[in-house]
């Protein structure tokens, strides 16, 4: 019987894979648009296949078509609603875009180091007192800037990664250990290019490589673990919730693919590379699914 501890362990391992995707920041001068777009395409292919083979089909086997389709619509529109309501920054290659109530000023904060915030100071009347005031003001501005960055980044990664953890928790709670392990493997694989896509623009803000890797790893672990616990607890509250819950997780994941991954992988002149990587990701999931089931 699956325990909450095993759910936490499996989801944490899948989330930790996000940090591997941040390793190329050490060589970011060599990271091209083609590689970036292909990584997003690979992640999209894995997520689409995982949604279909790991959630939709098992959900239909356990319940009705109506329940699963209802869950898909609820999950997809919930993701879109959160994307509209939650202030966050959408990351693209070396660029940030404001969404959900975030502003262009927030984008500027991400693109320029906070240390420059105390560059403009009032002419000193008393040199010692002015230097002290400027230092205090700069410290406050830097802390506020860091907090704002954390909130905006946290909103984006939660919207992106929570549906994946939810899917694992829902599958485990329904006694579908093979499906849950399949999802964990796929989500772990998908988290690598996902972490890469998130780390590249973050590295361009002037943040140190170690901090980029640390924050990228947390971006995968925290939302997925919290969401997996929620999904596990939700299905455990009542029998028969798996079809709707699996559809909800699948709908949210599909919305992420079409709202974030596919648009971000196009527009740089490498749509063919992204499409090819999408197909590779889809096939890879099918192969992994066949191996685990057998």
UniProtKB/TrEMBL annotation:
Keywords from UniProt, A to Z, are: Membrane, Transmembrane, Transmembrane helix
Cellular location(s)? Membrane
One annotated GO molecular function: zinc ion transmembrane transporter activity
Residue span of region Disordered: 111-141
What membrane topology does the annotation report for this chain?
Multi-pass membrane protein
User: Membrane-spanning regions, if any?
Assistant: 6-27, 39-59, 65-86, 179-200, 212-235, 241-262, 274-293
Annotated protein name in UniProt: Zinc transporter, ZIP family
Protein source organism:
Halorubrum xinjiangense
